[in-house]
Design brief:
heterodimer, A: 440 residues, mainly beta, 20-stranded parallel beta sheet, eleven-stranded parallel beta sheet, B: 366 residues, alpha+beta, six-stranded antiparallel beta sheet, two-stranded antiparallel ribbon, 7 helices, disordered N terminus
Chain lengths: 440, 366
C-alpha cells in the first residue's frame, strides 16, 4: 500500500492549520501523553523544582524519587492531571521528610486527579495530614508509609492517608503510625478497598466514614486506641449517610493505647481498648477477623445518640441523617480477651463508662450493643434487622440498652442485658466491592 | 486515486475554514497605549509584555482599555494591599447575570497586584510590589499566571512553583512588622479559585462590585462604569442589584451582615458545596441561612488539632469557645484558616467575628 500521497497532503494541511493558528484564539490542546519520567535524587530535589515538576507534568507522566531522605518545607501538590504516577524506591528507602515544614497543611495533596498512583515511599513528620486526596477517581496508594515520629501526640497530623470525596480507591500495603485521628481515613467516598495495611499507635487505626461500598480486609491494626471504625456522622453534605462495608480477615490486637485525640473530635469518643466500632452505619458485615486483647470491647455497635448523650447533647438530628445502625452482621470471628481493662490512668470517659458497667454486672462482653433500634424494627419485633450475630466462638454479648437509662447516675445502664438470643441469625453475605484503580 | 473520496473533502473543508479564519483575524491597528495579547503565546514570560501599564510599571497606572476596580469586602492577604484591573479584547462584553459572578467573555484578563505599603498609616511613603496574578479566560476555562516582581520594581517574571519571601512594613500602630509572605504555586490557586474543580474568579461578583470608585474622570458606580465603557451589559437599575456590605463600614450593614460579608470573601470560596471544603459541611456563602451550616453548634469535621480542644465551630455568645475564632487567630499552619495565604493574624477581622459571635448570635448548643 502506498501512503505517500496521504502523507504529503497531510503535511500541506498541517501547514495550513499552523499558518492560521497564529491569530486565532485556539482552544488549549489537551497534551498528548508523553510518558515522561521526572527523576529526582536527594541532592537535586529542591522544593521549588519538585513542585514545578508536579505542575509541569502532563497526563501519563511519572515522578520518581530515588532512595534517600528528602527535606521539604511545604506541601507537595498535584492537581487536574490524569494517569500520573509518583513513586519512590521503597517505603523504607525513600523518605520525604517534612520536619521543617512551614507552608501548607499536608505533606502531599492530590486534587481532582484521576487514575493516580502513589507508591513506595514514606512521608515523615508532616505538620498536618500525610496524604490528602480530594475529588479524584481511580486512585491507588500502595506501600506508602506515613510516620509521625516520637511519642504519639495530639499535635500530630489528624490523618495519615486521607482520601475524601473520591471514587474508586485502592489502599494496600501501607503503614501509618502516630496519627492523632485516624491512620487511614476514607471519608464521603465510594467503592473502596483498604487491604493489607498496618496501622499502629494512632487514635483510630483506620476509619471508613460516610462512604458507599468499602471492603476492609487483611489489615493489621495494633496498639491503636481503637482498631477499625465504620462511622456515620451528621452534617456531612456529600454523603449524609454511608452504607455497605465489609470488615473481614483482619488482625486486630492490643488496641488499648491511651487516646491522644484533640478534644472536640468524634474520634475522641472511641473507648480506649476498642477492636472494631460501628457507629450509626447501615449494612456492615464483620467476619473472619482475629480480635484479641482489645481491653474493653472487641466489637461495639453504637448509635450516635449514645455518643451525644454522653456529651449531654439531646438536640434534634438534621433531617438527612439516620442515627440507627441497620443490618450489622457479625459472624465467624475469633474474639478473645476483651474486658481485661486498661489501667485506669489510660482510660477515657467512654472507656470508664463501659468498665464501670461491666464491673457492676460482673460480665465482661466481647460484643457490645447499645440497643438503639429504629422504630421500624420494633414493628416487626425483629431486632436482628439492626444487629445479627452468629458463630463467633465463645464471644460474650451484652446489650447495654442505652436507650432505656435509669435515674441513678452511678448506674448509667440499669437495663444491661447479656441475652444474645434476640440477635442470633444469619444473613446473606454482602457482595465484594468492584474497584477500578491502578494496580488492580 | 483511491484515497480521494474521504481525503480531499475534509481538506477542502479545512482549507475553506482556514480562509474564513484568515479573513476574520486581521489584526486591529496596534495601539501602543493598550494591552497587546496574543492568546496563543500565553502566558508571557514577563508581565511587561502584556502592556497593561502606562509609564513606569511600578506606578501601576493603567493603559487604555484597562479598567481599575475594587471590592466592597476584599480577601485578607497578610496586610498586603491590592490593585485590581480588568481588560477585555476589543468588542467583548461581560454580562450581568444576577448578584453572583459576572459572566466574563472569552479573552478577559483580571489583573491583581499584591504590594506592601512601607507604612500602613501613610501610603505615600512608598511600597514594595510582590506579585501580580492574572486570571485569563482563554476559552471557556480560566487559566492563571503569576508574575513575581524584581527588586528594581521594573519587571515581573512568570512563576509556577511559588515562593516564600520576607516582607517588612510599619503597622497601623507604628510597630515594625515582618512575615514570610507566601506566593502561591499554580496548584495552590486551585485550592481557592475552584468551583466544581474548575478555576474561577472569586472577587468580581456583582454584589461585591456594586460600589463607587474614584476614577480619573470622577467617581462612579463600578457596574455603571463598566457598562459605560462597554465592558458589561444587562445591568438592571442599581437599586435592584444586591450589595455586599463593606465589613469595615457600619454604614453599609449591621453587624450580622458585615460578619457574613467577611466570611463570604475570606472563607466561602472553599466552604461551599461546590468547592474544596465541601466535605466539612461548614458553608459560609453570604446567602446560606441554616445556622448549623454556618457553624452554629456544629461539631468539627476532619479538623484534627484544628479543633483547639473545642466542641463546636461557633458557640453563640462565646467566641473563646468557638473553633472559628481559634482557627482565625492561629498562625500554626495546620490550624490556621484560611489554609493558604495567611501567615499573620487579621486582628480587625478577628475582632469583627468575635463581636458577631458575642452579640449577634444567641442560644445554647446543648
Amino acid at each position: 500500500m502506498n501512503f505517500k500521497p496521504l502523507k504529503a497532503s497531510f503535511l500541506l494541511l498541517l501547514g495550513l492549520v499552523i499558518s492560521i493558528s497564529g491569530c486565532k484564539k485556539d482552544k488549549e490542546v489537551e497534551p498528548e501523553p508523553t510518558n515522561e519520567v521526572f527523576q529526582f535524587t536527594p541532592s537535586t530535589a529542591t522544593q521549588e523544582d519538585v513542585q514545578a515538576a508536579l505542575i509541569e507534568m502532563v497526563n501519563g507522566d511519572t515522578l520518581e524519587f530515588a532512595a534517600g531522605t528528602y527535606d521539604f518545607i511545604g506541601t507537595l501538590s498535584i492537581a487536574d492531571k490524569d494517569s500520573i504516577v509518583v513513586r519512590g524506591a521503597g517505603m523504607s528507602s525513600t523518605i520525604l521528610d517534612f520536619t521543617n515544614q512551614t507552608q501548607g497543611a499536608q505533606g502531599f495533596y492530590v486534587l481532582n486527579s484521576n487514575w493516580f498512583l502513589m507508591q513506595d515511599f514514606t512521608i515523615k513528620d508532616a505538620v498536618g495530614d500525610g496524604v490528602k486526596i480530594k475529588d479524584s477517581q481511580g486512585v491507588s496508594v500502595l506501600n506508602i508509609g506515613v510516620e509521625y515520629s516520637g511519642t504519639p501526640s495530639q499535635d500530630n497530623g489528624a490523618y495519615g492517608i486521607y482520601p475524601v470525596t473520591c471514587k474508586h480507591l485502592y489502599i494496600n500495603g501501607c503503614y501509618v503510625r502516630g496519627a492523632s485521628d485516624a491512620g487511614i481515613y476514607v471519608g464521603q467516598s465510594e467503592d473502596i478497598i483498604v487491604s493489607q495495611n498496618t496501622v499502629t499507635e494512632n487514635v483510630a487505626g483506620m476509619e471508613i466514614e460516610n462512604c458507599f461500598r468499602a471492603d476492609v480486609f487483611e489489615n493489621n491494626a495494633t496498639r491503636n486506641t481503637g482498631g477499625i471504625m465504620a462511622f456515620d456522622l451528621e452534617n456531612l453534605p456529600v454523603i449524609p449517610n454511608g452504607h455497605t462495608c465489609r470488615i473481614y480477615n483482619n488482625t486486630i490486637v492490643n488496641n488499648s493505647h491511651p487516646s491522644f485525640a484533640p478534644p472536640g473530635n468524634t474520634v475522641g469518643a472511641i473507648p480506649v481498648g476498642t477492636g472494631i466500632m460501628v457507629l450509626s452505619y447501615d449494612r456492615v458485615e464483620i467476619f473472619g477477623n482475629t480480635i484479641t486483647n482489645n481491653d474493653v470491647m472487641g466489637i461495639g455497635v453504637i448509635s450516635m445518640t449514645t455518643l451525644r448523650a454522653i456529651e449531654g447533647d439531646f438536640s434534634p438530628y438534621p433531617a438527612d441523617y439516620d442515627p440507627y445502625n441497620y443490618s450489622v452482621y457479625i459472624h465467624d470471628n475469633d474474639i478473645t480477651h476483651s474486658g481485661t481493662f486498661p489501667p485506669a490512668a489510660d482510660r477515657n470517659d467512654s472507656s470508664n463508662l463501659l468498665v464501670g458497667t461491666f464491673t457492676q454486672n460482673s460480665i465482661f462482653p466481647d460484643i457490645i450493643y447499645d440497643g438503639y433500634a429504629a422504630p421500624i424494627y420494633g414493628e416487626n419485633n425483629d431486632l436482628t434487622e439492626g444487629l445479627c450475630i452468629s458463630n463467633n466462638g465463645g464471644a460474650i454479648f451484652a446489650n447495654v440498652n442505652a436507650d432505656a437509662p435509669g435515674p441513678d447516675p452511678n448506674v448509667p445502664f440499669p437495663n444491661f442485658d447479656p441475652e444474645v438470643a434476640p440477635h442470633v441469625c444469619t444473613q446473606d453475605a454482602l457482595s465484594a466491592v468492584t474497584v477500578n484503580a491502578p494496580g488492580l | 486515486m483511491r484515497y480521494s473520496n474521504y481525503f480531499f473533502v475534509p481538506v477542502l473543508f479545512l482549507f475553506l475554514l482556514g480562509l474564513a479564519n484568515l479573513s476574520s483575524c486581521k489584526k486591529d491597528k496596534i495601539n501602543p497605549n493598550a494591552p497587546q495579547v496574543d492568546f496563543n503565546r500565553l502566558p508571557y514570560e514577563t508581565l511587561s509584555e502584556y502592556n497593561f501599564f502606562a509609564g513606569d510599571m511600578k506606578d501601576l497606572s493603567p493603559n487604555e482599555e484597562v479598567v481599575p476596580y475594587d471590592l466592597n469586602s476584599p480577601l485578607f492577604s497578610d496586610y498586603a494591599d491590592k490593585s485590581r484591573f480588568v481588560w477585555m479584547p476589543n468588542g467583548q462584553t461581560a454580562s450581568y447575570t444576577g448578584e453572583g459572578l459576572v459572566d466574563f467573555p472569552i479573552g478577559t484578563i483580571i489583573i491583581k497586584t499584591f504590594y506592601f505599603n512601607n507604612d500602613l498609616r501613610d501610603p505615600s511613603l512608598g511600597r514594595n510590589i510582590i506579585e501580580t496574578r492574572l486570571l485569563i479566560r482563554q476559552d471557556t476555562a480560566w487559566q492563571q499566571a503569576t508574575y513575581i516582581w524584581n527588586a528594581a520594581q521594573d519587571e515581573a517574571d512568570f512563576n509556577v512553583s511559588g515562593r516564600q519571601i520576607t516582607v517588612n512594613w510599619t503597622h497601623f500602630d507604628g510597630a515594625a512588622r515582618s512575615t514570610n509572605y507566601y506566593i502561591p504555586n499554580k496548584n495552590d490557586c486551585k485550592g481557592c479559585h475552584n468551583v466544581d474543580s474548575k478555576l474561577l474568579p472569586i472577587g468580581p461578583k456583582a454584589r461585591n462590585l456594586n460600589k463607587d470608585f474614584a476614577y480619573a474622570d470622577g467617581p462612579m458606580n463600578q457596574l455603571e462604569k463598566w457598562q459605560a465603557v462597554g465592558y458589561l451589559q444587562n445591568v438592571p437599575t442599581l437599586s435592584q442589584v444586591a450589595k455586599l456590605p463593606n465589613w469595615k463600614d457600619p454604614a453599609t450593614g449591621d453587624l450580622n451582615a458585615r460578619a457574613r460579608a467577611y466570611l463570604e470573601i475570606n472563607c466561602a470560596h472553599c466552604h461551599n458545596l461546590d468547592a474544596p471544603a465541601d466535605n466539612s459541611g461548614l458553608l459560609l456563602d453570604y446567602n446560606v441561612t441554616d445556622m448549623t451550616d454556618i457553624g452554629v453548634c456544629k461539631s468539627p469535621t476532619a479538623s484534627g488539632a484544628g479543633s483547639g480542644s473545642l466542641s463546636y465551630v461557633i458557640v453563640p455568645g462565646q467566641p473563646d469557645e468557638s473553633i472559628m475564632v481559634y482557627r482565625m487567630e492561629s498562625t500554626e499552619i495546620d490550624v490556621a484558616m484560611p489554609e493558604l495565604a495567611r501567615s499573620v493574624r487579621h486582628d480587625e477581622g478577628v475582632d469583627l467575628i468575635r463581636e458577631w459571635i458575642s452579640t449577634s448570635l444567641t442560644g445554647s448548643c446543648k
